[in-house]
Amino acid sequence: MFIGNYNLVHILELVKDAETIAVTGHNNPDGDCIGSTLAIYNYLTKMGKKVDVYLEPIGKEFNELPGSEVIKNEPEDTVYDVFFMLDLGDVDRIGVVSELFSKAKKTVCIDHHITSKGVADENFIITSLSSTCELVFEMMDLDLIDKDVAACLYTGIIHDTGVFHHGCTSKRTMQIAGELMDKGIDFGHIIDHNFYSKTYKQNQVLGRCLMESMILWDGVGVVSYLTRKEMDFYMIDSNDAGGIIDQLRLTEGVKVAILIKEQEPHLFKVSMRSTVTDIDVSKVAAFFGGGGHKMAAGCTISSGTVHDVINNITKQLQFQLKTKGYI
Q1: Which of 229, 66, 274 is nearest to 150 (CA)?
Q2: pTM listed for this prediction
Q3: Per-residue pLDDT tens digits for 183-202
Q4: CB 298 within 8 A of CB 87
Q5: Are residues 150 and 299 in the same domain?
Q6: What is the three-class DSSP state of 222?
């Protein structure tokens, strides 16, 4: 049975006659993307369905999630009966599996982003929810959610709510979290493992980013960056830089925080966080072909130097900051 008040279809109904099913999410998958894809994988697998999961390589903090070991990074030549697109609504952002998605007999989009384009045969997009995992929960039978599914859903929810800190957290979000906790998950460990536990090298990088950060607009903004050379020196990858942007966001007086990571020469991954509800960083991310949420978003930019990226990003942010009277 459904707990929510939404006009939704049960996930099992969507795959009732399907023999082959696939799930995927967006490029550079985050916690909500990974949690929702693996939640559906575990849910349907335990109902006797064959499910393939396609995602780009995930961060180490997600390796404990049930089903993470079956994730495929490269497409297989299969025409799927049902193909789920989770946590996005744009075929261009599912990368190498876009052709498989297009060839599937039925496609389904489940998302909560306002930028979703509704490109699937069946689209379930509710932008008022905290996360795609919250929406996926509403499309499942509570009695059929086991500990593995609950762990995946809880992980996605805490990532998109900033452990229930962001403004997208609702009373319903907390009710769902309670239902998932009742399934026996080690919720304290999940939070620690995803947010607070860091390797020594990660702490070194965090310290470097804080030391090298720059204040913008007389303290209204803060930016820091990691070069490819620095990540190679510390022997970390982009996924190991989790938590840095959130620490920058906590700087007193800051309304916008920016972290830039060099992926390869002239290619940079940008993360942005807003600390106020009237500054929408997702609009800036969308301008550069990315996406995300109003207060947490990201994009990838091809540019000459990191300083070019800073100039391009701040130019777009400055308009909003001026309009709202922050600068």
Answers
A1: 66
A2: 0.83
A3: 999 999 999 999 888 888 88
A4: no
A5: no
A6: strand
